[in-house]
Amino acid sequence: MTEPLLQIEGFAVAANGIPLLRDVAISLGTGERVALTGPSGCGKTTLLRAIAGLIDPVAGSVRLRGQTPETFGWPAFRRRVILVAQRPVLLEGTVCQNLSRPFRYATAKTVFDEPRALDLMAQLLLEPGRMTQEALSLSEGQRQRICLLRALLAEPDVVLLDEPSSALDDAAAEAVDVVVRREARQRGLAALIVSHERGRITESCDRVMDLTSAKGAA
User: Fold this and answer.
1) Which residues are registered as beta bridge partners of 82?
2) Of 8, 58, 99, 107, whose CB count within 10 A is highest?
3) What is the block-wise mean pLDDT of the chain (218 residues), using blocks of 10 residues?
4) Distance CA 18, CA 6 (A)
5) C-beta separation of 211 from 179 below 8 A
């Protein structure tokens, strides 16, 4: 049996001391896209943040290729498992400066690939001229796609997408779906995707996992 790419076992998360989800188990294979659904406020975003190591879970473990984050080292793990938040975070400077900044860190293993960035921009329905635009002047939907693009440039094993199309029109949302599917097929990228758009997400993902039964006291 093939070992899962990402394995989450016995996960429980809470916010401000209030239990949200308990006993969550997720097995994600290479190139697989799994949708996470559930009632609003049940803890889907908190779960993604805990998987990415941005907050501590109440209980449970996560393994990537059979190894714990501590084995990789947290900085290396977070380059392999990247969270793309619903509220996109960009810094002052141009789009190009925002995209290239992670590649200037001492821990970066690759260099900024501007031709690939421009290619992904086109696939995500963003004009090449956006590269020199001030990032903070972008619309919410444009920022969402730039943050996804920035994550894909790092070539992670897994992306955790929190409502990736919440600020997008139908054409842009479809473009995001197409790009993620292509990365899954060509690179083996795996994705956990939180969305309230169950119809769209059911069609675009390999599996849908409803977290309703995991809601409650841990």
Assistant:
1) 159
2) 99
3) 88 93 96 92 94 96 96 93 95 97 79 96 97 97 97 97 93 96 97 81 85 66
4) 26
5) no
